[in-house]
């Protein structure tokens, strides 16, 4: 009697002694934020929570046992132990009692035997052993014969991705180049790189456009396209394909494209170019993963539908410059489950033995020297394509005034009202796209955070963001006039758009800056002002001391002048921009608005600053004007910084605070002195003020240190957290606030009591009233350990 194996995608389900309610895999992402709503409101009698594999194992065997390798992500799993975590905090966060979870076994373990009831319902033999396997990719890797060693697996499915196997768990967040999953072999791990979301789907889509072309010759469409592609030289005569038919979530603007198309090209060129584009992407992702893991490979094992195409297999070998193997049994996932069963019942003692007996290689494609050389030249061009196409696709999103963000919804500009000077948008509309659209019509929100090209309106409001023109236009809280949000219990609330009202406390501010802890913002209405870029004036000076610089900031703002930009940099901070001109602190100003107002403001500032005997004009002023052009960061700048951090042990961080004028210099001096004294391997600490008010200003500390260890978590504990603690302590003891515009999150939550003092009770009462189960972003603002403390 042959055993039964279970192989399904992991998805949460609720099991009771009654038939359980099985959930779609998408619900995995709901567990973390809404666990109690599913548990209490959807299935009131549920006492067990499991994945679909556990549910089916229970229905077949009557045992509440499942494979550990089905659980990852939001589940409270300890990947080192292959069992549920010992940390109570994770169970509290998910609102899951330990008793609600099934016992776990490793792949190859016996889950039980088919019961008489299950046998009658399914036709399976009573007593048939049911064997644990793993998640879909892990089972596929096992069926392909992947082991810890020099093989790289290329999975050619709808989602195409490279995979490696190893014996170390690399926790989530260690790197962005791959993520660690359970392998389908006990105590081993699968490293899955980034991939192409619609990989082989794009091949099928293209073939569908030419459906029927093989009817006359009794060939399939794919056979005709493959035959035509075989006549095309490597590189497809300069035709390149960008495979973003479905973009990644963090690059929603990207689209698929053929680049270089001319009269030489036909459908054979296009088909080959799609296959080459897939292989180039796999090479790109593999190279990044292998470099991060410090691994080398000497062979490719290829699985999935694409392995039947000889042209594809050969160009993969040529592009990677490695032999590419396909196996006799192409259903690798099914074979992987069979291997689990064979080991589970003792047919083979070891997985290596089972793999050697059951995984049979079919064909191996060796790289061809001429093609390898040609593809190496093409790849050098291909890997930089996104840098050229991203700006174009971003601009295309604003056609017809609609900002499109993938297909996730909440991406519409709902109403442009020039009479009332208001713009209403859904929360997912990117600020930069809305700004570009408004600028063309002569308007602006006045909001210019550094993240403008990447930020959405919902996130800006939820984090109470500030822009770099805030001294004139204010923060987001000064711009929002109305909004819509969804509360933790599911009800929708709307705050109407009015200029001001005196009707009890302004509840709009309950939502602005709630950081996802009170509500999910779905719609925002903001004020508009005229966009007048031709009226800008730029001024810049060096100043002898930071103390004198702060005095000048205070006098300008307290007198009533409102430049859009008013900044003071210490020499250390300014050196990151123009090190040749960083001997003294630097003052920077920009004025704007109606021409007479901008002229008058610039003139007054010039007179006040130059009246000081401690200032000198900054030269050349063109440097300052050029500096203004780099006030915002696109994804390109973010990626460049990440790449730079990975190439050097030098790490930089920031922490920003705010305080009244009489204490701001004291905070700056106390923090810089303590950090230099207490933190080893410090490369420097400086700071700047960038947002000023009648009664005070902010202080944005910038610091860098050298950490040669490849240990991000340890790095935070050794350097960033202690520096942040010093900054917060010195600020709070002088009556300042620990965050001017970066919010609280989890990093500063431990200081929330000291920040609020006696009014902490008001904050906590508010949060617990709206969200008594602590469902929304639990641990944010108020740490989990503070939540149930007596007030």
UniProtKB/TrEMBL annotation:
Residues 409-531 form the FAD-binding PCMH-type domain. One of its GO terms (biological process) is carbohydrate metabolic process. This is FAD-binding protein. It comes from Lacticaseibacillus zeae. The keyword Hydrolase does not apply. Signal peptide: none annotated. GO terms for molecular function: FAD binding; kinase activity; oxidoreductase activity; phosphotransferase activity, alcohol group as acceptor. It holds the Pfam family FAD-oxidase_C. InterPro entries: ATPase_NBD, Carb_kinase_FGGY_CS, FAD-bd_oxidored_4_C, FAD-bd_PCMH, FAD-bd_PCMH-like_sf, FAD-bd_PCMH_sub2, FAD-linked_Oxase-like_C, FGGY_C. NCBIfam families: Lacto_Palin_RP2.
């Amino acid at each position: 009697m042959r055993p039964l194996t279970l192989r399904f995608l992991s998805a949460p389900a609720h099991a009771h002694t009654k038939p359980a309610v099985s959930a779609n895999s998408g619900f995995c992402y709901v567990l973390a934020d809404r666990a109690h709503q599913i548990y209490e409101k959807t299935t009131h009698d549920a006492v067990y929570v499991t994945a679909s594999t556990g549910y089916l194992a229970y229905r077949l065997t009557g045992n509440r046992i499942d494979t550990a390798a089905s659980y990852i992500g939001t589940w409270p799993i300890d990947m080192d132990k292959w069992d549920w975590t010992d940390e109570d905090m994770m169970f509290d966060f998910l609102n899951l009692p330990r008793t609600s979870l099934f016992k776990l076994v490793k792949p190859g373990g016996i889950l039980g035997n088919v019961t008489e009831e299950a046998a009658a319902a399914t036709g399976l033999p009573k007593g048939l052993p049911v064997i644990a396997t793993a998640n879909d990719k892990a089972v596929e890797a096992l069926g392909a014969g992947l082991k810890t060693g020099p093989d790289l697996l290329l999975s050619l499915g709808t989602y195409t991705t490279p995979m490696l196997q190893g014996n170390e768990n690399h926790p989530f967040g260690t790197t962005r180049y791959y993520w660690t999953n359970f392998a389908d072999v006990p105590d081993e791990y699968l490293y899955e790189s980034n991939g192409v979301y619609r990989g082989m789907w794009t091949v099928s889509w293209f073939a569908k456009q030419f459906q029927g072309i093989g009817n006359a010759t009794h060939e399939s469409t794919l056979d005709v396209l493959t035959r035509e592609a075989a006549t095309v030289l490597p590189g497809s005569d300069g035709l390149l394909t960008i495979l973003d038919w479905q973009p990644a979530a963090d690059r929603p603007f990207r689209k698929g494209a053929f680049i270089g198309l001319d009269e030489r090209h036909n459908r054979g060129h296009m088909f080959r170019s799609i296959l080459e584009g897939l292989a180039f992407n796999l090479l790109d992702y593999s190279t990044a993963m292998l470099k991060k893991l410090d691994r080398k490979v000497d062979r490719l094992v290829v699985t999935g539908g694409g392995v039947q195409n000889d042209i594809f297999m050969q160009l993969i070998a040529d592009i990677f410059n490695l032999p590419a193997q396909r196996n006799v049994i192409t259903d690798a996932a099914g074979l992987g489950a069979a291997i689990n069963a064979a080991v589970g019942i003792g047919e083979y003692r070891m997985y290596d033995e089972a793999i050697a007996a059951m995984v049979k290689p079919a064909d191996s494609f060796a790289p061809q020297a001429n093609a390898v050389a040609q593809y190496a030249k093409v790849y050098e061009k291909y890997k930089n394509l996104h840098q050229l196409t991203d700006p174009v696709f971003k601009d295309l999103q604003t056609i017809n005034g609609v900002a499109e963000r993938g297909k996730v919804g909440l991406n519409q500009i709902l109403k442009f009202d020039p009479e009332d000077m208001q713009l209403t948008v859904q929360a997912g509309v990117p600020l930069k796209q809305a700004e570009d659209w408004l600028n063309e019509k002569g308007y602006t929100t006045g909001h210019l955070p550094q993240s403008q090209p990447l930020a959405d309106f919902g996130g800006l409001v939820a984090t109470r963001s500030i822009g770099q023109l805030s001294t004139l236009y204010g923060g987001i809280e000064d711009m929002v006039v109305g909004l819509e949000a969804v509360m933790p219990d599911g009800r929708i609330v709307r705050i109407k758009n009015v200029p001001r009202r005196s009707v009890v406390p302004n509840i709009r501010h309950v939502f602005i800056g709630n950081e996802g802890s009170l509500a999910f913002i779905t719609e925002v209405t903001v004020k508009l002002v005229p966009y007048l870029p031709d009226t800008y004036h730029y001024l810049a000076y060096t100043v002898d001391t930071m103390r004198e610089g702060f005095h000048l900031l205070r006098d300008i703002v307290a007198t009533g002048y409102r430049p859009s930009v008013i900044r003071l940099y210490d020499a250390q901070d300014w050196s990151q921009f123009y090190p040749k001109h960083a001997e003294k602190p630097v003052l920077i100003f920009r004025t704007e608005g109606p021409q007479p107002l901008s002229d008058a403001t610039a003139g007054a500032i010039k007179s006040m600053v130059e009246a000081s005997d401690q200032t000198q004009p900054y030269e050349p002023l063109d440097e300052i004007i050029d500096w203004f052009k780099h006030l915002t960061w696109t994804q390109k700048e973010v990626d460049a910084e990440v790449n730079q951090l990975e190439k050097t042990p030098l790490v930089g961080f920031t922490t920003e605070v705010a305080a009244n004028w009489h204490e701001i210099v004291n905070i700056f001096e106390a923090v810089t002195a303590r950090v230099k004294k207490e933190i080893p391997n410090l490369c420097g600490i400086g700071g700047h003020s960038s947002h000023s008010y009648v009664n005070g200003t902010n202080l944005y500390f910038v610091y860098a240190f050298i950490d040669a260890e490849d240990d991000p978590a340890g790095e935070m504990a050794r350097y960033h957290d202690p520096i942040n603690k010093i900054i917060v302590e010195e600020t709070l003891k002088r009556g300042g606030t620990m965050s001017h515009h970066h919010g609280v999150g989890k990093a500063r939550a431990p200081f929330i009591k000291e920040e609020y003092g006696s009014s902490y009770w008001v904050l906590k009462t508010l949060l617990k009233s709206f969200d008594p189960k602590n469902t929304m972003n639990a641990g944010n603002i108020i740490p989990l350990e503070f939540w149930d403390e007596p007030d």
